[in-house]
Give the backbone structure.
Amino acid sequence: MGFEDKRARWKTCSHSGNEDCVAVARLGSVGVRDSKVVDGPIVTMPPAAWRALLDGVRLR
């Protein structure tokens, strides 16, 4: 099962409006993609790396 699977529930950030937005899904690992290019590339990372990324962004 991968992020292309129909069971992946992609969520977008409500704070970004309709532009420059990413979508995130979790299926074991965390997948991140451009919300405007749903069939485009997906970056995957372990949940701990996703948490570290979010913590780093929140500090700024």
In short: Strands lie at 11-12, 22-27, 29-34, 43-45. The mean pLDDT is 83. The longest strand covers residues 22-27. The chain has one helix and four strands.
